[in-house]
Amino acid sequence: MTLHPTSITASRKQRTLTILWDDGRLSAYPFGLLRLGCPCAECRGGHDKMGSEPDPQVFTMRLDDEQKTGLKDIVAVGSYAVTFIWLDGHDAGIYQWQYLRALCPCLLCRK
Ligand SMILES: [Zn+2]
Ligand SMILES: [Zn+2]
């Protein structure tokens, strides 16, 4: 069974995206992590590397580029994913719910 968000909110002030899931868990993603974890072919270095799990490296990296990590908009893709539009114009990443959940940086998920 796939988990679904019951709410998605972005705070530009805190540069954090918050998702409440239908199992009650709350995920808070720094914008930089979302951008580092962009699942598109370009960011992941080729279609063969587009897995359903984020690259573990993204949890230890930092990205401070204001344009790259500036969240401009969130667009729903059907009922299964969202696309983030970044200030530098990048919008190729389709973040499926399963992927987003796997990208959650909280201690419970990272265990
Ligand atoms: Zn990308
Ligand atoms: Zn979590």
Index terms:
about 110 residues; alpha+beta; NE0471 N-terminal domain-like; three-stranded antiparallel sheet; 4 helices; 6 strands; about 20% helix; about 30% strand; binds zinc ion
CATH class: Alpha Beta
Arithmetic mean of pLDDT: 93
Secondary-structure element pattern, one letter each: EEEHHEEEHH
The side-by-side strand order for the widest beta sheet comes to 1-2-3
Low-confidence stretches: none
| Major pleated sheet | 3 strands, antiparallel
What is the alpha-carbon Rg in Å?
Answer: 13 Å
Roughly how many Å apart are the termini? 21 Å
Strand content: 25-35%
Describe the structure in your own words.
With 111 residues, the chain is of the alpha+beta class. It has a single domain (5-110), classed as NE0471 N-terminal domain-like, CATH 3.30.2020. It is built from four helices and six strands; from the N terminus they run E-E-E-H-H-E-E-E-H-H. A hairpin with a 3-residue loop joins strand 4 and strand 5 (81-86). It is globular. It binds zinc ion (ZN) (2 copies). The site of one zinc ion has 7 residues, from helix 2.
